[in-house]
């Protein structure tokens, strides 16, 4: 009984110590995260703007106006399409590149180092580089396609509504495939070789081994990759803004929120859009994690 009480006292002491050590971190997070979030939520229920001294409480008017605005739904469609298409391509290509880099071959170390080059380039710099590459007169993309005979005339990739979003998706894929490759490669190296040997003994071919051994073992890594990349893709701003500006064909929900707040001065409306972006990301993450739990069962 005495030992039990001592153990309980020791556990309580450790818990208090942990709280003391974590308290500064929680305070900083509250200052830089919780306060701005709560302030944004409050502003979303007001008609705050840069042209009025005082803000009036308007309840859900900003949200009603937001949902009746066709530009918001167009921006939401662009964002979801960009996120799903770009993340899907990044995951597929990342797994393929990781499988290649996991094989022993001459120059593998150099290939692994070269794979990281897109990842270390600043995002705005990479976006501007790709914008120049897509130029319809001086761009290397048109020059290469013309030389190969794949197109007859130069294409204004970023000015054409039917190609602009796909051009940005291609840039995002090039930029973030190394991130997916890195995480998947680390997981690949942790798969026991005995599993492949057992599968081979059972008569499984390369495709069967990939489907029945590799993919199940990569499930956790792929889940982490999808969550991280979807969180980033759903709030995309800088890539699109640098490459196409406020073009209606590629505007995203983050750009829409910025436009409402900065260009139009409608702080309340922009805050409502920001809150919906936050809720969309949280809801998407919860649904995806719920799907993973159902599959595990």
TrEMBL record:
Q: Mind listing the GO biological process terms from this record?
A: transmembrane transport
Indicate the transmembrane segments per the record: 20-37, 75-101, 113-130, 164-186, 264-289
What UniProt keywords apply to this chain's record, in alphabetical order?
Cell membrane, Membrane, Transmembrane, Transmembrane helix, Transport
In its keyword annotation, does this UniProt entry include Plastid?
no
Q: Where does the record locate the signal sequence feature?
A: none
**Cell location:** Cell membrane
Please verify whether the record's keywords include Flavoprotein. Answer: no
Domain ABC transmembrane type-1, first and last residues per copy: 76-288
User: Which InterPro entries does the UniProt entry name for this protein?
Assistant: MetI-like, MetI-like_sf
Give the GO cellular component terms, alphabetically.
plasma membrane
Q: Which family does it belong to?
A: Belongs to the binding-protein-dependent transport system permease family.
Listed name of the protein: Trehalose/maltose transport system permease protein
């Amino acid at each position: 009984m005495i030992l039990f009480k001592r153990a309980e006292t020791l556990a309580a002491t450790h818990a208090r110590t942990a709280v003391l050590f974590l308290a500064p971190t929680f305070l900083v997070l509250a200052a830089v995260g919780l306060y701005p979030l709560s302030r944004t939520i409050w502003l979303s229920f007001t008609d705050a703007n840069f042209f009025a001294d005082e803000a009036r409480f308007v309840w859900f008017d900003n949200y009603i106006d937001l949902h009746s605005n066709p530009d918001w739904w167009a921006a939401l469609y662009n964002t979801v399409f960009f996120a799903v298409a770009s993340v899907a391509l990044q995951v597929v290509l990342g797994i393929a590149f990781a499988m290649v880099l996991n094989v022993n071959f001459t120059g593998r170390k150099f290939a692994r180092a070269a794979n990281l080059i897109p990842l270390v380039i600043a995002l705005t710099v990479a976006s501007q580089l790709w914008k120049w590459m897509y130029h319809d007169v001086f761009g290397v993309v048109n020059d290469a396609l013309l030389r190969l005979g794949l197109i007859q005339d130069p294409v204004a990739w970023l000015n054409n509504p039917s190609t602009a979003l796909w051009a940005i998706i291609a840039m995002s894929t090039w930029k973030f495939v190394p991130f997916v490759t890195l995480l998947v490669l680390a997981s690949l190296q942790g798969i026991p070789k005995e599993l492949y040997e057992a599968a081979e003994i059972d008569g499984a071919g390369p495709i069967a081994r990939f489907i029945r051994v590799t993919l199940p073992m990569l499930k956790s890594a792929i889940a982490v990759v999808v969550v991280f990349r979807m969180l980033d893709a759903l709030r995309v701003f800088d890539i699109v803004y640098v490459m196409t500006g406020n073009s209606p064909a590629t505007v995203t929900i983050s750009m829409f929120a910025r436009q409402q707040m900065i260009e139009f001065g409608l702080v309340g409306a922009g805050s409502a859009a920001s809150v919906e972006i936050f809720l969309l990301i949280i809801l998407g993450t919860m649904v995806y994690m719920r799907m993973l739990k159902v599959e595990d069962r």
